[in-house]
Amino acid sequence: MANPKYKRILIKLSGEALAGERGVGIDIQTVQTIAKEIQEVHSLGIEIALVIGGGNLWRGEPAAEAGMDRVQADYTGMLGTVMNALVMADSLQQVGVDTRVQTAIAMQQVAEPYGRALRHLEKGRIVIFGAGIGSPYFSTDTTAALRAAEIEADAILMAKNGVDGVYNADPKKDKTAVKFEELTHRDVINKGLRIMDSTASTLSMDNDIDLVVFNMNQPGNIKRVVFGENIGTTVSNNIEEKE
């Protein structure tokens, strides 16, 4: 087997990825399917961390727009990410992967406080980061970029539902939309491509972390990305900038 392109990765999943066809809530069968995909890659010796959003359970910005205090709305969303992390951890444990949930907000009965993630990864455990960075106004995209930098990940894998990469327009609305195979981080920022929020994009660029956007609904795609197959869109500092 070829050598992997990435040996330590952080997978960023949307909360909606755990909801399956329902679009909201948590579908256990969907979570179990994702866990098996991750387990297959982990069994090849790849070190894996996860950040999972909470949009399947709660969205802070719409709640704030409806009149809820933004800080409380964001903290509510952080708790949603912890729920998703615990469910994913259970499914990973069931397929034989030693997994730890770490949270930026202390809740020692259900998860570890954030820290010692590198030690867990080196021992072959998967680490799931919950509760964002522990502060309001920061997205789980920013959490993914920050945690990836802290654990010295080679890449962030942005696993999307039915989206096979980054386009110059919405391919569902514009049949002439063109897919990018490669971009630089500066391309993403300059072109205003909404892969991640601007804070997350800048963190990824400054810490020289590759970003790969791909369709997670195609079985085996996580493995394909790790071994360097040309699927989705790769964002890196080491790519010639596109005009």
Give a written overview of the molecule.
With 243 residues, the protein is an alpha/beta fold. 35% of the residues lie in helices and 19% in strands. Helix 1 packs across helix 3, helix 5 runs parallel beside helix 7 and helix 6 runs antiparallel to helix 7. The longest helix is centred in the middle third of the chain and has 25 residues. The radius of gyration is 17 Å and the shape is globular.
Strand order of the largest sheet: 4-3-5-2-1-6-10-11-9
What's the rounded overall pLDDT mean?
93
Compute the number of strand runs: 11
* Proportion of helical residues: 25-40%
C-alpha Rg (nearest Å): 17 Å
> Which spans of ≥5 residues are poorly predicted at pLDDT below 50?
none
Strand-and-helix sequence, N→C? Answer: EHEHHEEHEHEEEEHHEHE
Largest sheet: 9 strands, mixed
Strand content: 15-25%
Describe the structure concisely for a colleague:
The protein has 243 residues and is of the alpha/beta class.
Please write out the topology.
Elements: E1 8-13, H1 28-42, E2 47-52, H2 60-65, H3 70-94, E3 99-103, E4 112-113, H4 117-122, E5 126-130, H5 140-150, E6 155-160, E7 166-167, E8 179-180, E9 182-184, H6 185-191, H7 198-206, E10 210-215, H8 221-226, E11 233-236
Parallel strand pairs: 1-2, 1-6, 2-5, 3-4, 3-5, 6-10, 9-11
Antiparallel strand pairs: 7-8, 10-11
Helix pairs in contact: 1-3, 5-7, 6-7
